[in-house]
Amino acid sequence: MDTITAIILAIVEGITEFIPVSSTGHMILTTKLLGFDEQEPIMKTYEIVIQLGAILAIALVYRKRILDLLGIGRRGRGRGGVMPASRLNLIHVILGIVPALAVAFFARDFIKGLFGASTVLWALVAGGILMIVAEWWNRNKSRVTAHELDDLSYGQALAIGLYQIISVLWPGFSRSGSTISGGMLSGVSYKASADFSFLIAIPIMCAASGYELLDSYKYFTSDTIMDFAIGFVISFVVAYVVVILFMKLIQKIRPTHFAIYRFILAAVFWLFIMR
């Protein structure tokens, strides 16, 4: 892997990690387009590094909310130092991440066997359909009970966590796509679903990347460290900008827009690369 390839992959990771288009799918398709084997150990290690850059970016964006959840921020302390029960708390986060982490832990080897370009193409289409259905369902305002992040119930947080399992078992489906769609189908507004999806990405991605890093640390050598560092920084910067822009434009960029992009991407790769 040369420096140019490292930069391209870092940009792709930063752009796609938190929007509902599947970063895993894009990485698989991009490496195939560049002529690399995505399953090569060095490539897997590099993907972990640039994912960590993206995680740092989202943690920076949501730093105030994270401090609140830990009881350190101003809103987190509440009156008498106790967070109100109605406010988003760590129980919501735990309910949102435990189902996916449990499935990933017990089905790790099975999931790795599913990675492939054709699997991703079908996942892009299926995920797009789910997003269209979720937006249609969410348009009926009477079905929305959680308009803001702090309105989220424990049941809705668990439902989002269960929807997240789809992305764990089906590479290319998109973690953010499944969680945002799951939130909207569970009565959570589009914006609140996106906020919760981004927030729970931090612990679940840290756990997944950290676990994988235990098997990959040996690939950090004098020959690779510079490219790894460049990729980390680029992924961090790009992911930070993308998340900020996404949240500012969230009312203009609807799930159906992402679904259409997914359909087009799947069709292009099927016609010009897979055939």
UniProtKB/TrEMBL annotation:
UniProt keywords, alphabetically: Antibiotic resistance, Cell membrane, Cell shape, Cell wall biogenesis/degradation, Hydrolase, Membrane, Peptidoglycan synthesis, Transmembrane, Transmembrane helix
Catalytic activity: di-trans,octa-cis-undecaprenyl diphosphate + H2O = di-trans,octa-cis-undecaprenyl phosphate + phosphate + H(+)
Membrane topology: Multi-pass membrane protein
Record-level Gene Ontology MF annotations: undecaprenyl-diphosphatase activity
Protein EC: 3.6.1.27
Transmembrane segments: 48-67, 88-107, 113-133, 154-173, 226-250, 256-273
Function text: Catalyzes the dephosphorylation of undecaprenyl diphosphate (UPP). Confers resistance to bacitracin.
Name of the protein this chain belongs to: Undecaprenyl-diphosphatase
Lineage: Bacteria, Bacillati, Bacillota, Bacilli, Bacillales
